[in-house]
Structure formats: structure tokens, C-alpha cells
Amino acid sequence: MAALRPLYQKDLASGVERFFAPRRTTCPWCASDRLRERVRTTDLLQHKPGAFVIDGCRACGHHFQNPQLNDKGLEFYYRDCYDGLGAEAAQSILGASRSLKRHRAVARSLRPFTSPETPPERWLDVGTGHGYFPQMAGEVFPDTVFEGLDQGEGVENAVHEGRIKRALRGSFTDLAPSLAGTYDVVTMHHYLEHTPDPRAQLRAAHTALRAGGLLHIEVPDPESAYARVLGRWWLPWFQPQHLNMAPARNLRRALEECGFTVVAAERPAAHRPVDLSAALLYLLSRLMPRADAPWHPRPPSAAARFVRAAMWRAALPAVVAVYGLDLLLSPLARRVGFSNAYRLLARRN
Predict the structure, then answer these.
(1) How many domains does the chain have?
(2) 8 Å CB contact between 58 and 35
(3) Which among 226, 223, 154, 141 is positioned nearest to 187, based on CA atoms?
(4) Residue 32 belongs to what domain range?
């Protein structure tokens, strides 16, 4: 922490404005100028400095960060989130037993769309992180070779720990030409919303897939009723990391334009019952004295650390109770428009 603080303070000395591209006046999806501000918030996860706005397009329903982070901004706000200082916390969440069980269920849902006689030979998980989805999918498709692609060091750790066979580190759009026609399946789970140009990612998937190959996508649903009810405290807004959030109809049309045929769509099954408890955690974290982090100019005082620890202990029963409410309401949420995500499965023409 002490070693990183001077580096972060040097990055922040000129302010955070340099981390953003110019503000758009038109929708990046349909070019309409009928925009409205949907959310204005701060970094509720790491509490790095900066303010972020999500605009919604009244014409097509696309939602996007505006102004959007540029390459320097993405590097700054991703740093120490999934790797570095944040690696242990990220792995404890992404590798939790409930998450692993969910990954296995998603993989099983794809079996009816593959041939029992000739299972997928090679499978690429884009945005794989630490490779937990390929690890679970490998139990469902034991004869398939799983590879992972990501920009962080987690993808290389996934190889060392045996969760994937091969690591590809870098930009999918840059690497796709060298991967042309390589894969039978490409998965993108909670990946597209992190990218500046989702359509370019679909074209990259089309390039990397063999004819007849499958592309499976899971993304947050900006039309979820939870998004309206919870506002800035809705977890899937996930600022500053989520750059683009497309409604299902937009993504379906984009897939067809890229040369895919959508063969299955799921909304209820994609729901993750965390909305209310995550909103409470966000709010509590906002109200409490901050934790130590190198992007803050100095460590918190001993008194602040004591108050923070006491507040967390007092709030824990409420967090557990609200998470129980999330689980209890989940079947109803899936049926009445509160599902917070959706999935599309498409076959390359």
C-alpha cells in the first residue's frame, strides 16, 4: 500500500479529466441525439476519484457511459480491481461455490445445442478473468480444450492453476484475425458491457468461430425493473467499468447483422439474486469511513478504522437478512421483469 500510494498520487496530480474521451451528443448504437441522463454516480466499488454518467437513448434504448473512459482511464480504474491489491477479493467472489455452481449450470444449458457424438473441440472464453467458467464447463464437456482470453494477469494464473489450457492476453479485436476459424464455441459472460465497441466484439467472435460455431453471451439488462427502482445503487450499472449496455432486441439485431442466427434467448435464468443486498452494501460503504487504498492521499486514522469495523459488525445481520430477501424474491423477480440480465445463444452462419 505504501509503495503504491506515490504512484497513484502522481497519476491523480493532474486530475481525472484526462481519463475521459469527449462527451457524446449522439447514441453510439443508433446515432440518435435523443439522449437523457439515466444515472450520475461515483466509483462505488473501489472509491477511486471521479464522477460518472450513464445516458440512455430514447430512440433505441441503448445505455452508455458518457463521457466514456479512454484507454488511460480504463487502465487507471481497472488497476488493482481484479489483479494486484484486488486479486484476493476478486477470486473469493468469482470462485465462490455458488458462482461455480452457476457456471456449471450455464455450461449444461448449452449441451442440447452441441452434438453428443462430436462435442466441441476448442472453446474460447472471452473475458475469462481467472478462468472459473472454463473450469466448470470442462466438467460438462470433458473432451473439449478450453482457452481463455483477457487483458489482466488472471488469465495467465488460470493456466498455471489448470483451469484453462491456453491463455491469450490482449484485445480480442486485435487477436481475432490470428484466430480465424479456430473455435467451435466462444463465450462472453458479462464481458460485452465492459467494451467500448460491442459490435466490434461480435465481428471478432464471428472471425474466431468455425462455420456453425456457437456464440453464447450473457450481459446485464438495462431494462430491468430493478434498474429503475434502485437507481445509482443498482449493481449492474457498475461504474466506472461498464461502458455499454444494450437491450436484448438491439443485441439480437446486431448479431444477425454480423452473420449469426439467434437460436435461444433466456432472461429469467440469467438473473442473479443480489440486487437488494448489493445496493445495501453500496450504501453502507458510502456512509462508512473509507478503507485504506493508495488512491487516497493518506491512510485513515485509527479512530476511522475503529468506526468502520464497528459499523460493519453492526450492519452484518441486516446484510444477511437482505440477501435472504433477494433469494426469497428471486422466483418472482424472474417472472415480473426484475431479471437483471439476459442470455443470447447464436450460431455462426
Answers:
(1) 3
(2) yes
(3) 141
(4) 16-78
